[in-house]
Amino acid sequence: MHGNVQGVGFRMAARREAARLGVVGNVRNRFDGTVEAEVEGEADAVHAMVSWLEQGPSSARVDRVDVAPVEPRGDAEFRVS
Question: Is the pTM for the entire model greater than 0.85?
Answer without folding.
Answer: yes
